[in-house]
Amino acid sequence: MDMRFRVLPPLLILFYSSLAGFSQSLPAESPEKVGLDAERLGKLHVMVQQHIDDHKHAGAVTLVARNGKIADIATFGYRDLETRAPMTADTIFRIYSMSKIITSVAALILFEEGRYSLDDPITDYIPELRSLKVMNPGGGSDRGDFARLKRPITVRHLFTHTAGFTYDFSTPDQLKPYWAKADVWNENVDFKEFIRRISFIPLAHQPGEKFTYGVNTDVLGYFVQVVSGMPFEQFLQERIFNPLKMVDTGFDVAPEKMDRLAKIYENGPDKALRPIAKPPYGTYAEAGKGFPSGGGGLFSTISDYYRFGQMLLNGGTLDGKRILGRKTVEFMTINQLTFLEKPATDPRGAEGFGLGGSVRLDLAKGGTLGSVGQFGWSGAATTTFIMDPKEQLVALFFAQHIPFNQHGIFAKFGTLVYGALE
Question: How far apart are CA 140 and CA 136, in angstroms?
Answer without folding.
Answer: 8
